[in-house]
Amino acid sequence: xxxxxxxxxxxxxxxxxxxxxxxxxxxxxxxxxxxxxxxxxxxxxxxxxxxxxxxxxxxxxxxxxxxxxxxxxxxxxxxxxxxxxxxxxxxxxxxxxxxxxxxxxxxxxxxxxxxxxxxxxxxxxxxxxxxxxxxxxxxxxxxxxxxxxxxxxxxxxxxxxxxxxxxxxxxxxxxxxxxxxxxxxxxxxxxxxxxxxxxxxxxxxxxxxxxxxxxxxxxxxxxxxxxxxxxxxxxxxxxxxxxxxxxxxxxxxxxxxxxxxxxxxxxxxxxxxxxxxxxxxxxxxxxxxxxxxxxxxxxxxxxxxxxxxxxxxxxxxxxxxxxxxxxxxxxxxxxxxxxxxxxxxxxxxxxxxxxxxxxxxxxxxxxxxxxxxxxxxxxxxxxxxxxxxxxxxxxxxxxxxxxxxxxxxxxxxxxxxxxxxxxxxxxxxxxxxxxxxxxxxxxxxxxxxxxxxxxx
Length: 456
Fold this sequence. Notes:
Blueprint: E1 13-15, E2 18-20, H1 31-56, H2 60-63, H3 66-79, E3 88-89, H4 94-101, H5 108-131, H6 133-140, H7 143-164, H8 171-184, H9 186-192, H10 196-203, H11 205-219, H12 236-243, H13 245-248, H14 253-287, H15 297-315, E4 322-323, H16 327-338, H17 347-355, H18 358-361, H19 365-371, H20 375-397, H21 401-417, H22 419-433, H23 444-455
Antiparallel strand pairs: 1-2, 3-4
Helix pairs in contact: 1-3, 1-11, 1-17, 1-20, 3-15, 3-17, 5-14, 5-15, 7-14, 7-20, 7-21, 8-11, 8-20, 9-10, 14-16, 16-20, 21-22
């Protein structure tokens, strides 16, 4: 495998705005990520099949085929487009999307609605990519507003999981506690530096939480398993016939008009994910000086356009939509990445190895039937890690009392009333509370006095 020189970008093949990396040549293999990543990716992808059953009105055996199309575009994100983020869904927007689809009849009508949403969000990605405003937009947004957006993600994630406690009041708290201890505990962090077994446990924190759920869940009667044997053959023909717009037709213009406001709100969540991902990379770069991670928001917008429109044209709409990163996994991999080059050669070896084993696991019926009851746990682990990371990142971005109060207040508005209201109020309050930070609106003396007042 081609080795990277210290301080340089991971080697790859440059094409247009992207850099492709060939596994085994530019990306190494890593067992800890492959084991738990394969299992959790397979489990989480099963949730998409369940959504397709509910809204698209197709049998589960047919809906499971979306797993393979999704995996192709997840791996393409890393291998073909060269994005450093751990790819995933636009998870924070999923409740909005499900609510929108719930207003249509399950089946063709809902598929048309999701197709319209997908095309609208693709147009937004394409606009920001071609104009380059995606990168500028990120630079224009003050750190206080970034903190508010990230904090809103924490509130939304925690609220969703606390509501789930009614269905699994024992299993989920136990799993959350174990994963948080293995990943963030101060005393455990010291212990893993002394004992290899603790270090191994930390490297597989999400998998351990997953397996604990498989043990604890049946004990408390919250999970039941029905393991079967055999091979699962993807039913691509049946899936394309039921879902593809080339088979069932395209949405009407009226459907696009209904979908556009939702698409705009979804983009706000995507922007929040990009903000969080870039912030995590900045923090990781302070520890890992041996690798320069190329972050390009314009390239990311092009990648998201190709992933979403590619999935739509290949196999129909994708309910969770392709987003820049799977936040919980990205947080986990960044923590592993910061532990040193010996544990993770490159950020790309971490992300790639997380996904590829799911191609093989998803055709094994024992794996599929084992995963099915654990799907809610897989999502829960992801959302709790997302919320925990969003909370500490948001706090680290704001220092003064006024900035902190602003970030948390606006974040609560976003979580409670939605991204459109939150963004509008956030911009207004920024001008009212923090405008003096902008030099063009006052003399240097005025700004200095205002900063001193804010810090008091």
